[in-house]
Design goal:
heterodimer; A: about 550 residues; mainly alpha; 21 helices; B: about 220 residues; alpha+beta; three-stranded antiparallel β-sheet; 6 strands; globular; ribonucleoprotein (chain A); U3 small nucleolar ribonucleoprotein MPP10 (chain A)
Chain lengths: ~550, ~220
């Protein structure tokens, strides 16, 4: 195994040498042979690391037909778990520096190899360091390119370290990594961190990376070369830090591991580590109580964790209960009692007593118009009609004031009244009854005339013999009613039209003798009448005189 | 005779205290001529000059019912311009004379015979007379206008009142005579008074209507 590795190492060296020897400008243009060598070299390195990363899914780096991106991905696949295990190892070494002593012996065997490789790598790293100087000011977390490159290098470094350790991987707990020790370490660290935290709390409250990083920079500046940056920080590192850290690892001395003179250094380192750790993942817990912080161990059982959570909940709720309630929970709240515009933020539920305005759509208007048209056609207008008041009793007969001289004497009036009172049946017809009778007669006559006009086959009503009828009308007129406009004049015979003797002469036609005769007859008539009147008058006077004489006697 | 009879009966009663009383005497009602001790009663009615010629025309209509039915003697005194009435032996009722006198008097006032005849036939009819100046003092044209208001155009207002109240009204210059029953006279008098006082005819009509309707309903 060792010889094989040595042989492959030598191959590697050759390849790497070749890679290294090419001038930087050559790299700018893509060249097949360069890429080929690079690929091979990475494959070999991958195979080396395979032994230390048993969990990686790939047995070897596949390079035929894969592009750069895919190769990087494969390397990543292997190196990620590798890096985390390396971190753990390094932490363990920090805790127990005596372990490193054991490794040293193992390492010595391969020290030469390490050194040679280290030198080669150092040269490359220097190149990278120049590049990474540009990123000094950059405080962003994941600079993927750099990380990848560094990972590759780190992978190789880790490999060295791991080799020194004896390849003790697999199983969480081993001589280097003990959970109890880890727990104790964490506790100590937190205590330290808490002590330090008070000083730096104000400045750290923002939780901004910038602040943190400044602090880190300060720390770094203070203990420049002597800082022992632990392990590899994938996300939140300054590249400058990392470089220094790597250099220190390479040239690790006794003081670095067992820094008795500078005990603050590891503490401060730890502090900064802790800060970074917390910062990377645990921002929220910064403001919690110390008690809570002390129990952030992973060694708690699930039950304890649950009870812890419950307790935290209970604390929170009790605190909420003690505080004054929010305004939404306070019942009736006027505008003065709540912050400005707070009602807008809360989703209030209240009844709208206003009927929502009807949405006027085309269908709505169309339906309305339909109804209107229908109503107009029907003539149903919903007019307010006066309710006809039912006559509760028969309307009183309004006595019409007769403004004519009454034809009846007063005695007759009273007589009639008396008769009506005593014997209503025998009472003669009143004026109103007579009027009614007359009206009915008139109407009958009118109806008869109208029927005659309107019927083609008119049959007159049978004439009822009535004593009162004395119409001096020719019989033809009575019986025959012509439906056509035929005047009655034609129906009468000439004798009926003019009744008189023959020779009728006008004044102008008369002869003198005839005129004389007429005058003589007139005179005779006049005289006869005169004498008649005279005799009548005389008779009256005589009677009066006789009476008076009689009375006087 | 009567008094002597009364005297005689009293002692007889005193004598027969112990015995039964004699039967009460039955007296026939007095006849008209017996009332005033068999003497004849007269009534005289003056004839105003404006009623003289109408009287002459209507004389027979007055004479016949008085003489035939009321059995009162009636004659016209031409010299004195009077109508004189006298009871006869067979006058049935003493009130006939008075009725006839009232009848003739009514005619003299200006009423028609047919209206005045009602006095003969009905007992409850009366004549009320009053003057316009009793109601309101009016002079000159106001008086003339009042008279005009009372009569109305062609007498229609007067006739309306007559017909509505079953009375007869005579307006003679300033004098007004109303013939009718007591209540009717009152209504007519009220209407006429309101007319004299100046209310228009329409108002009087409406009041008349209401009152007569009420009167009619009562019976």
């Amino acid at each position: 195994m060792a010889t094989k590795s040595e042989a492959s190492l030598n191959l590697d060296l050759d390849l790497l040498h070749r890679l290294k020897s090419t001038e930087p400008p050559v790299w700018l243009a893509p060249r097949a042979e360069l890429s080929e060598t690079a690929r091979k070299a990475s494959k070999i390195i991958f195979s080396y690391l395979r032994t230390y990363a048993p969990k990686s899914p790939l047995d070897q780096l596949l390079i035929e037909g894969f592009d750069a991106e895919q190769i990087w991905q494969q390397i990543d696949l292997q190196s990620q778990p590798l890096l985390s295990s390396l971190k753990r190892e390094v932490k363990k070494f920090e805790k127990k520096p005596e372990e490193i002593g054991k490794i040293r012996e193992v390492l010595e065997g391969e020290k030469k190899v390490v050194e040679s490789v280290g030198k080669v790598l150092e040269g490359e790293r220097r190149v990278l360091a120049e590049e990474s100087d540009d990123f000094d000011e950059d405080l962003d977390d994941g600079l993927d390119d750099d990380d990848e490159e560094e990972e590759e290098e780190e992978g190789s470094e880790g490999e060295e370290e791991k080799k020194g350790k004896g390849g003790a991987e697999g199983g969480i707990e081993d001589e280097f990594l003990k959970i109890n020790e880890l727990q104790e370490y964490l506790e100590e660290d937190e205590a330290r961190e808490y002590g330090l935290k008070k000083d730096s709390n104000d400045s750290r409250k923002k939780g901004g990376r910038r602040v943190l990083d400044n602090e880190e920079d300060e720390d770094e500046d203070e203990e420049d070369e002597d800082e022992e940056e632990l392990g590899v920080f994938g996300d939140s590192d300054d590249n400058e830090e990392e470089d220094e850290h790597r250099q220190k690892l390479e040239n690790a001395g006794y003081e670095d591991f067992f820094g008795s003179k500078r005990k603050k250094a590891p503490k401060k380192n730890l502090k900064s580590i802790e800060e970074l750790e917390e910062d990377s993942g645990l921002d929220d817990e910064e403001d919690e109580d110390e008690a809570v912080e002390t129990k952030k161990n992973d060694n708690l059982s699930t039950h304890e964790k649950q009870s812890e959570q419950l307790r935290a909940e209970i604390e929170k709720m009790e605190k909420a209960n003690l505080d004054p309630k929010t305004w939404t929970m306070q019942g009736e709240v006027t505008a003065a009692q709540r912050p400005k515009n707070s009602a807008l933020e809360v989703d209030l539920d209240f009844q709208h007593n206003v009927r929502p305005a009807p949405v006027i759509t085309e269908e709505f208007t169309a339906s309305l118009e339909e109804m209107i048209k229908k109503r107009i056609i029907e003539g149903q207008f919903d007019d307010v009609e006066k309710a006809a008041s039912l006559p509760s009793k028969a309307p009183r007969e309004l006595k019409e004031l007769d403004e004519n001289k009454s034809k009846k004497g007063l005695a007759e009036v009273y007589e009639e009244e008396y008769v009506q009172k005593t014997n209503p049946a025998a009472a003669p017809l009143t004026f109103s009854d007579e009027q009614k009778k007359e009206a009915s007669m008139l109407f009958k006559k009118l109806c008869l005339k109208l029927d005659a006009l309107s019927h083609f086959h008119f049959t007159p009503k049978p004439v009822i013999e009535d004593m009162s009828i004395q119409a001096n009308v020719p019989a033809l007129a009575m019986e025959e009613i012509a439906p056509v406009a035929v005047s009655d004049a034609a129906m009468l015979a000439p004798e009926e039209v003019f009744a008189g003797r023959g020779d009728v002469k006008e004044e102008a036609e008369l002869t003198k003798a005839e005129r004389k005769r007429r005058r003589a007859s007139k005179k005779r008539k006049f005289k006869a009448e005169a004498t008649k009147r005279m005799t009548a008058k005389k008779a009256r006077d005589n009677t009066l005189l006789n009476d008076n004489d009689g009375k006087e006697e | 005779m009567q008094s002597s009879m009364d005297v005689e009966t009293v002692p007889s009663q005193l004598q027969n205290e112990s015995g039964s009383l004699p039967p009460k005497p039955l007296f026939e009602p007095l006849k008209a001529h017996e009332m005033s001790d068999g003497r004849v009663q007269f009534r005289k009615v003056n004839v105003p000059p404006h009623r003289y010629s109408p009287l002459k025309k209507i004389w027979m209509e007055i004479y016949t019912p008085i003489y035939e039915q009321m059995k009162i003697d009636i004659r016209m005194n031409l010299k004195a311009r009077r109508v004189e009435l006298k009871t006869r032996a067979d006058t049935p009722d003493i009130s006939n004379l008075q009725k006839c006198a009232d009848f003739v008097h009514a005619f003299m006032l200006g009423f028609d015979v047919i209206d005045a005849i009602a006095l003969l036939r009905l007992d409850e009819l009366y004549i009320e007379s009053f003057e316009i100046k009793d109601v309101k003092t009016l002079r000159g044209e106001h008086l003339s206008r009042a008279i005009g208001r009372l009569s109305g155009k062609g007498g229609k207002t007067k006739f309306a009142i007559e017909n509505a109240t079953k009375t007869r009204i005579v307006i003679a210059d300033s004098k007004i005579h109303i013939l009718g029953s007591f209540a009717n006279i009152k209504i007519a008098r009220d209407s006429l008074c309101s007319l004299i006082l100046g209310s228009p005819a329409g108002k009087v009509y409406s009041k008349l209507r209401a009152v007569t309707a009420r009167l009619a309903e009562r019976f």
